[in-house]
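ok so dumb question maybe but i'm new to this and my supervisor (M.) told me to 'just get the structure for Putative NAD-dependent epimerase/dehydratase family protein' and walked off. so i did the thing. is this what she meant?? sequence i used:
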Amino acid sequence: MNAPTDRMASALLLPQPYVLFLGDTTVRGYAKTAFGLRDWAPEKCVGELRLPGATVTAGLDAVTAAEARARGARALVIGVANQGGVIPASWRVSLIEALEAGLDLIAGMHMRLSDIPELVEAARRLGRQLIDVRVPPRQIPVGTGRKRSGKRLLTVGTDCALGKKYTALALFRAFERRGIAADFRASGQTGIMIAGGGIPMDAVVSDFEAGAAELLSPDADADHWDIIEGQGALTHPAYAAVSLGLLHGSQPDVFVVCHEPGRTEMLGMPGFPVTSVEEITELTTRLGRRTNPAIRCGGYAFNTAAMTDDAAAELMAKESRRLGLPVADPMRGGPAFEALVASCLSAD
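this is what came out, is it supposed to look like this??
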């Protein structure tokens, strides 16, 4: 999915297939890594491992670490991206048991596996690997703002964990089906696990966010598209910095606004309402013009997983008329999604 460049870190060589570890997670939005791998790389997943108290499931077979190894798993992937990206002490016995069962450990958390002494000691003793995906390449330059060749599409959102990665992947595959030269550019840990390469933007020091985004999407042929996975939201009280750096550095020609109808508060931020799609569109356009004056909105991607087919179709048709651009759920596909793809590809 990611074309190699001499300026990006080489593609990860992750031991596969995986067993997905959900820990004791009770917030569905925090399990986006597990869901992403299940939905976009199902052939790499042999089952899931949950601890007592977990109420979130990816719907895969429940297995122990030993059973996963017997099914051919080579690594346990922490399928959780919780607030702060921590690996709690309550998980560590299970992680050591996975190492003892013959599995390597893969994580995309801010807290690194390699910083936990008991995991380091167990991995050394057992000859297993601790693989931290959320590690940016070294010597990232500051952004230059230089206009690069090729075309770019960025997914942006009204909040975190509502479909930016899924939308980017769906658009990438739709472009490929149309015979358009394209690459999916992963900017988060789950996308990197799916694609095998990328830059974890939320692990980059703020001063270098734009520069990292420039590395992520280098010069390309004039008719080549980079489909860039968005992060955070421009109005998020905690994560706006990564969103802005990614916007300036990626210099998108087109952006798609991702939104979950019915969500009222930002994930993990009680009291902070979700921003409207209109405000995100206006902010993205205004701020994006700093590095690409020709930036435009291609349409809207709604996450309607909690809605019935009829209700979703009615809402998206109504919102498309109101907003004047295609509104689609990339996971539902159909004519609405094809209209979104066409709008993204159309010239002004």
